[in-house]
Amino acid sequence: MKEDLIKGCRKNSRKAQEALYREYAPKVIGICRRYATERDDADDIFQEAFINIYSSLKKSKEEIQSLEAWIRRISVNTAINYYHKNKKYADNLSIDYAKGQDYNQEYEKILSKLSMQELLELISDLPLGCKLVFNLYTIEGYSHKEIAEKLNISEGTSKSQLSRAKNIMKTKINHSNKVRYESIA
Amino acid sequence: MSQSREEDKFGGHFRDRFESWEDAPPADGWQKLNKSLDAEDNSRKKWYALSVVALLLLIGGGYYLLDSNFINIGGGATTTVMSNSNNDLLLEDVSNTSVSSDQADGDMPSSDCASEENDFANDNISLQTQNEGNESPESDGTVGDIPGNDKGKAAQPPSAEVNESSIFLSNSSNDDKNSKGEKRSKSGINNTKAKSERYTLNAQKTVRGDAYAGNEKIFSEKSETSSEKKTSSEEELVPELVNDASKSDGRRNTAAYFDSNKTSSSAEAGASELKSSKTGNNDSSTSGLEKEDKNSPIISYEENSGIASDDNHNKNSKEEQTIEKSSPLSIPDSLESEKTEELKKEKLKDEELKQEKEEQNKELKHSKWSLLLGADVNYSFKHIIPQNDLLYISSVDNMNELSLKNAGYEISLSARYKLTDRTSISGTVSWLNTRDNTSYTYTPLVADSVEVINVSPDSFDVNTFMNVSHNEVQNSTNYVGLSVGFLHKVRLLSVERSLFADFRLMKVVSSKTDLNKSGHLFDRNSTIGSVQVGVENPINIHRFQMIISPYFELPFSSLYSSKSVYQMKGSRVGVSLGIPLNIGH
């Protein structure tokens, strides 16, 4: 089935392309939304990701072991390129975030009770650089070295961005009404 | 340790829930995607079509080049062949004449009449001589032996000239007669057969003995031997000739070469010839001719043929007279050769005139349109505009270093139309490759990391850390270009040169970025406009015309888009080598 899809896409068959889209679009949009700040950005990345998937399939004649993992990798790379192209993030250092030290020790409990949408909002609200590093490290499982290569930054920067992302999220959790409610409760 | 465990737990919440998270794709996601895919396909098809057209034009141009070369070579060869073939034809004419004479009854082409004339004259004269040999043997081999044979007369120039040339003619006829006589006396072969053998001999003489002197010697020798042998053979010959109807048939058959319609009366003509030949003097033969001019079908043939008409006779006789005066021993073969030479010259002149006309026609046809097949090398100068973004390019290490890494190439085919003698317009299809190698040092504007120090209740200090890095990139881009322009001829440094200016639109076909280890983005602008100016210098190498054109090209926009690490609005210089091709044949 997947081989047929791959073969069809390599032959530029529109039917095969549509079938691939129908099957993997939900996963791809999930990835895109994690990396994008806004929904529109996520849609742009999504569109570009599928064009890249089709063109990569046509260009590459190598055997694809896991189509899902391969599509995931292409989508993540597209998101990173989008980050490079748009360069929207102006990672102005927030002093508040930088000096924020008041961690709520009970955030673990709180996190488990947060909905997917709330978690996604936590990620989306992160500065772009921090969001990229957090997504790549925490969810995609890349190492700091790999992230440094991909984002053209130093390893130390990757680590600090991750740390910063977590601090921001924890701070947000602590300051959110829900967190306070949970804490009181 | 406990902190890292906490970190893992924190991340774990997100990993577990987002790793395979799916969301609803945009409602019109596929429609948008489909549209963009269609647009991409159409764009690709369009450029493929353009590439195919350009390729076909190139192939056509190449074919034309080869073809025109072939035609030129062929033209030269044709000329040579033509002249050769003329020679051949002329030689063949001569040989055909001889061969056809040899065949005696064959279908002789009408163009061979002139040469046939001589053989025919020989034949008739020999007959006359034989007749006269019977009736007045003392006249053999003398001027007075010129027969009143109308055919002989017709074939030969009128009386006076014939008298002079008849020395040889009668001798040669004696020779023929003797040979016939010998053959007849030995093997009993009839007269016609013997005559055809004589034709064969004559033909062989004509073919083999192209050299006049050789012929003269041969004939003079033969005339000597024939006069010796004559006395023994003439007695046998004469009665046969008188009674031999085949003799007149032979003449008729020879006459049939010239006019097959008039062969029916040849027997009568033969009889009248024999009668007139018996008069035995020039005057009577002339009068016989005059009489037969009106009545004889052979004479009427001669009138119609336009070869033996009186005017032509006069002309021919004058020519022959001059030849014979200069060379009393000149023979019919030599006259024939003179004539063939004259014909040859005339034909050559005609051909030259034809060729001139053809060339003029060709020039007229070629005068408006022409093609130029060109190839060139170019060098790209860089003018780098750093982007106002995350990277600060502090220095470019090889700004305009002369290196092959910055050299590209171009292949083009342009069609030109001449507006005036000096001004032309042109349209060009080209394949352009540009390359640039850039080595630069950069610093990210966003700090890699920060260190907060001296934190106090009111203030704190922040140290930022930014890596200074180095990157080298080798970019290569292929474009398909379409350009329009104009050329104007001017006289520069005492040579006619053409100044040209082209406006060009280039579309990216493919691109490649190498050595780019840092992952910097080099996104090409898909379409670029540029203006090109230069000078065309014609050069001739061994009659092969070429055009060398140094040029300068300035693009209107950057090669790289604003998304790239930097923009580059580089100019290009190059030298083009072109082959002009005329069209219209």
TrEMBL record, chain A:
GO BP, one annotated term: DNA-templated transcription initiation
GO molecular function: DNA binding; sigma factor activity
Protein name: Sigma-70 family RNA polymerase sigma factor
Keyword Transcription regulation in record: yes
Family, similarity comment: Belongs to the sigma-70 factor family. ECF subfamily.
Residue span, RNA polymerase sigma-70 region domain: 20-88
Keywords per UniProt: Sigma factor, Transcription, Transcription regulation
Origin superkingdom: Bacteria
Pfam assignment, any one: Sigma70_r4_2
Domain RNA polymerase sigma factor 70 region 4 type, chain residue ranges per copy: 117-166
Organism annotation: Fulvivirga sediminis
Automatic annotation (TrEMBL), chain B:
Start-end of Polar residues biased regions: 121-136, 187-205, 277-288
Coiled-coil ranges per UniProt: none
Bias (Basic and acidic residues): 1-20, 174-185, 218-233, 310-323, 336-361
Keyword flag Transmembrane: yes
Sequence intervals crossing the membrane: 47-66
Keyword Membrane among record annotations: yes
Keyword line: Membrane, Transmembrane, Transmembrane helix
Region (Disordered): 1-29, 96-361
Protein name: Outer membrane protein beta-barrel domain-containing protein
